[in-house]
Give the backbone structure.
Amino acid sequence: MALPLGIHYLIGKFDTFAGHRPDNRRLPVILLRREIEADPADDAAVRAIVDYQERLCETRDGARRALVPYALIDDTRLRDVEPHIDLLDDLVHQLARNLPRGNGGELKLPRFHTCRAVLRTSAGDGTIGAKRGQLRDGLYLELIRRRKWLATLAQLAGTLGQEGLVGLVRTVFSFFVFGLPAWIYGLWLRVGRGLRWVGPQIPGAGGDFLTAALDLSAQGRYRQDPVLTQRILVMALLRDLQRAARPSRLWIYRLRRQWSFVVLLREVGALGTPSRQFLDTYAYVVRAQDSALLMILGALTGPVPSYAVPVGSDPQQPSAIADRVDDLYRSEPQGSATEGVYVVTLSPEDDDGAAANALAPPSRVVVRPNSFADYVRPVLLPLVLALIAGTTLYYLRPWQQNSCERVETGEIVGVTDGQECSLAAPGRDEELRALEKIVDEQNSRLDPDLPYRSVVFFAPLSARAGNLPPNGLQTLRGVIAAQNWLNTQKKQTGMQSRMQIKLLIANSGERFAYGARRPDSPDDPDVAAKIIGRAAEDRIVGVVGITQSREESLAAVRELGAEDIPVIASSVTGSNMVEDHKSRNYFQVSPPNSRIAQIMVEFARHSDQIRVPSHTSQNADGYRKAVVVYDPADESFSVDLMEKFTEQYSPGVVDRIAYDENDPRQQPGDVAARICRAVEKPRGLLVYTGRSALLPNLFAALEVSSECRTGGIVPPLNVLSETLPKDFIEEPHVLERNYSFVRLFYTGFTDLKTTPLPPTSQKFMDNFGEVFKSLNITPDSDAAGGYDALNVMSEAVDAVYLGSPKTVEPHEVQARLNDPGIKGHLGATGTLNLDSGNKYPPNGPVYVLEPLSDGTQQPRLSCGLLATGLRQEIWFTAHEEFACP
């Protein structure tokens, strides 16, 4: 029989959408018919549908294979028993069998197979719970048959014996192969979303899937309802195909599954026939769905369904009906066509040869060819995600504590290498951020092929908003200069006997508030614990810095000592740090308050600038009344130095004035008035033992106080301080210009402004200038102390490296510092000797210096083992000499 005229236009449209599925939408159902007086047995529409399956296949190397997944449904081949179910079984079987090889993978339809298994599974008798359990076990057995690996495990369990130990093993093995998985599978069936839609489809049913499925099981009340059972199976199939059409992005099949799932209905006959019943069910189901991916083509041999919409044609334009079908595939159903079923009437005229030529082999459906590039996204995407995840994990390190944490004061405390996170609070702490960048740059210059160890600079490096920055920043600069010199010098001289030093920065917060665990606030950050937590990964061998004598800093030292991590402190002078603290892990390069108090007393008694002239003195020993200002809340440093000075100043008179730096009720003006009322007239002596950061505020108050200007004091008032404020170091002219009422002397551990400098001090100045030359920063004894602390730590590390180059652990460095210790180390602050018996340098150098407006300073006293390696045992005034204490 000849083909209908112009049918090749229509077949061409079918080819287009069979090979390239439209967007994720509901595909229309197209039924073909031809109204001519001809033999019904030789229906052109039926022939067109049957022959179309040939266009969905190709023959290659003698083998026939499908280009798209398709199924040809022939009612005459279905079983007489439950043909409505047999049709769907046949449809699913053909779709799976005809899935294109190499670009289709395996067609998995878990919802359909689960619902199909319910129909043939008996739930037995008993309570609802018992029935659910039997149904679950039956469904799990069906799942085992579908999953080969589960079936293999089940067979293995069956081969084990039943007696003795083997029987016990079989029982345990069976529990993990069947019992536990069956329970989990049942839980998934009950609470999972994949089959939750089944319950609302069953009249009177509710609850979870297993409960609703009892009505569809072998003895269920709706098991024999052909409409309901087929409707649920169709709904399950459509949901599975929706998932199968768009698998995971990690599969190559996502790119290759661009075809449609084609269903060919050979004959859609009278009402009640299998294909017509399937079409009725499908039309009912999809009218409420936005997406249905079955491309159904059929030959209409029976009455036109009431829900079907005819597609008009123009006899003068054979291609017009094909264009209309093209529009149907590209747009959503509208108006009365909610079911999306359309009837296309083929031309009554026979083909003039054009259709036969157009449809002749090798013409067929064109599908997207497979390409090696299909593997790019599935392979590249996991690699990119792995790279992103690895990079994120590297920087965030979630297995560690948070490296940097913001606390309630607005500060950021923690540990950083200068790159992983910043300890500088945004909008402030700019000095700290600049130092972090330098540390990151110097760490990046380490040779990755050579060994290194990390040393942590641990100190308060920030303050509350509005407070002055701590002296730890200046100490950190000295440590940075030392790292630069050590690693540069080691590269120049060879690395065989020397270890590279990587520097980490740890901020404890103002007043060392978060340096250690606080029993009253156990959830607050513990920076010492952070250092301990990353000691192994970062190869930490020691800690330097500390910089403040406080109970909190001492607690941090003890916490580190519990893990045998050595600490070398600088700028620390509190007596409790070395006199009461006997830990093997603690050392310091600065002298204690007892030594500093000796020097201060010596200077106050004998210096030309301060002592009472002999012709006016009522005290033969030259003692002038001393007014000591101290911070009563700072017991470890300020109170300690005040007590040491008072004790050694005897029999001189000492008047003590408390000035709590954190008490808002104590204003600098009130303290200044008290000082000027108390000091000796006309030239008094003020000894300041508080933190140097508050000294400018006190000087400003003395400058304007009426008590000071009219109380009989002849300026300048001599002030002897333990250290020099940072502002006076960076801007030396400020002292003379703004504070003419006072004359300041201060103690230090090195003299860096008197030329010529000793070689070791000059080396420090050169290295410091090399790192910070662009910042125009003047180093002080705090920076020199930090420089010496890292150099001493590095010397101990190198000594251990020579003896055990494969280890170099913190406890080995600690042992080395204790015995034999560090002997005769020529540092920027003097000659250093440290060991188990000398936690600080014995007879360490102490200077009394007077800053001058031109930026230089005048050494008024120097005693101890100086940076030259010589012991200074006497000091001189204008007319006398005195033995150093």
